[in-house]
Amino acid sequence: MTVKDVCEEFGITADTLRYYERVGAIPKVARTKGGIREYDAEAIGWVRNAVCLRKAGVSVEAIAEYVRLFEMGDETLKDRLELLIGERNGLKTQLDELTAAVELLDWKISRYQEAVETGVLSWEKNE
Amino acid sequence: MTVKDVCEEFGITADTLRYYERVGAIPKVARTKGGIREYDAEAIGWVRNAVCLRKAGVSVEAIAEYVRLFEMGDETLKDRLELLIGERNGLKTQLDELTAAVELLDWKISRYQEAVETGVLSWEKNE
DNA sequence: GCTTGACTTGGAGTCAACTCCATGTTGTAC
DNA sequence: GTACAACATGGAGTTGACTCCAAGTCAAGC
After folding, report:
1. Smallest Cβ distance to A92: which of B102, B108, B115?
2. For A107-116, how does the pLDDT look when each residue is reduced to its tens digit (9 = 90+)?
């Protein structure tokens, strides 16, 4: 697969894809003789990994650190495990905060729907 | 309540608190004669709102827009409702992406725990 | 073999959201 | 009444994550 194919598949730009490679969030991608990137299944797996984690807010730096450890081989298994646990815990916290915000918005929305439909404001202040 | 109290309460810096006010993510805060900010219950409600939404990733700009509409009065009820619904939908999407990432990490973590405990790598590639 | 669109690199630019700084003021404790 | 921490302002600086650009190379169609 080419850069364009991968970008379309994951909904990112070519610049972003190359940026991920440049900073190590995905390993160096194999090239054709002419120097054109050629993504095989494994490379695409790495892109999927990076895109999935980035969408959840994991930093490019943390993703790159995982890739770096991965490439160092089996002696970094424990380090990788710790890294993953740390990131997972961060995401769990983020999930709680996100859920709280959705609840806040849902509550406000229900009040506003009332207000818009009935013309009556059934609450005070800004809550 | 003073700047310091509010910061401690919400775990943000004084600079951030003043920044939120400056860009309108919270309304202008009342001052003492000497010009010192004094947060009453309502002001604190606005800070809570801003902090909660920011933690979930809602942009400062969107929060400020809500505040702006709020201060324009009842004629903006519908606009505010639409704004809230848009933001809520964005957060729901974000929640899905976050959940997917947590699942990915949980799966990897379970594999790594196996590998670290047994010394056996029970999977191929980078998955 | 020429056009054309997609690709290459290195480096600079942009944007949101802080974060820091200089310089001065306020107000509580002694 | 003086020391000192916390406050004020305006503006500059930083950070992370892209995003754009210039100048050139590659390759599929005609």
Report:
1. B102
2. 999 999 998 8
